[in-house]
Specification:
This protein has 288 residues and is mainly α. It has one domain. It contains 13 helices and no strands. The longest helix is centred in the last third of the chain and has 27 residues. The protein is globular, with a radius of gyration of 19 Å.
Length: 288
């Protein structure tokens, strides 16, 4: 239970920062003796942090859903353009979230076995931490940071979605990947983060509940987190994550991502050193 509490804190602290929560769960789990908590545990605890997103963006989400429904039922006209949000920005946003969610759904199902095994190799995690640190720093430096979410288009939504799907590999970071893509497309730091968080809701909730229902009644492997331990970790992740998302969005309004870039690089180096000296092993037990 103590290990579950620690991992819940880690999930809540790292989910919204561009530093990869799945990498931190993988690394910290091994360091505290819990082993790899597994893809299922990671996905289920993310229900907690994503609930924090829903709570934080509740008014925005409500407006998006209301306008989406009005457009679909033909309040602005019965032609295809009207139903697809030609007259309502929030309705278009709903369609962009749907569109941007397609890549991670397709790739998540196609690569499911690798996600739960090979992709969790700590050598891969360390590499992704370093590579995407450099990409985030580069994007933050060259990005024009002038576009708002009103300038989102179907092509840009797909680009966001492809970037989000890279987070299927621990070390990339869901928020980090999508924010990097947003910055490269010229969006402001706040706009890139807002869309990244909204886009994550269907994917994270879908993955979390898929793993939850899949694990019901299944025989857990030796050392796998129990249902109660996973629940406790999820609740802690929600509470901590809500505080973190407020602070993170305030921080990026006035500061660059340089601190996160250096943190990722240092963490990658530490992981490599721990792997070389044998404190960490590349692969651990998997609990799907």
């Amino acid at each position: 239970m103590l290990e579950a509490i620690v991992l819940g804190l880690v999930q809540g602290l790292t989910e919204f920062l561009p530093i990869s929560s799945s990498a931190h769960l993988r690394i910290v789990g091994s360091l505290i003796g819990a082993g790899d908590p597994g893809a299922a545990f990671t996905a289920i605890t993310q229900i907690g942090t994503e609930t924090a997103v829903v709570l934080y963006y509740r008014k925005t989400i409500r407006d998006i859903l209301v306008d989406w429904w009005k457009a679909l039922r033909g309040d602005d006209g019965t032609d295809r353009a009207a139903r697809f949000g030609a007259h309502r920005e929030n309705a278009r946003m709903a369609w962009y979230i749907v569109l941007g969610s397609i890549p991670i759904v397709v790739l998540g199902l196609a690569l499911q076995d690798w996600i739960e095994t090979s992709f969790r190799n700590l050598w891969i995690t360390a590499t992704m931490l370093a590579v995407f640190a450099l990409l985030l720093g580069w994007a933050d430096k060259i990005g024009e940071r002038r576009r708002t979410l009103s300038e989102l288009t179907p092509k840009r939504a797909i680009a966001y979605g492809l970037a989000q799907s890279l987070a299927l590999v621990p070390g990339v970071s869901r928020s980090g990947g999508t924010i990097t893509a947003g910055l490269l497309m010229g969006f402001t730091r706040k706009a890139a983060a807002d869309y990244a968080f909204l886009l994550a809701i269907p994917a994270v909730m879908g993955s979390g509940f898929f793993q939850l229902f899949r694990s019901l009644g299944a025989n857990a492997g030796p050392g796998a987190p129990s249902g109660l331990e996973t629940l406790v970790a999820t609740i802690i992740a929600f509470a901590v994550g809500y505080v973190v998302i407020i602070g993170f969005l305030k921080l990026i309004s006035t500061h660059s991502y340089r601190g996160f870039v250096w943190y990722r690089i240092i963490l990658a180096i530490v992981v490599v050193i721990l792997l070389v000296v044998g404190v960490l092993t590349p692969l651990s037990g998997y609990y799907a």
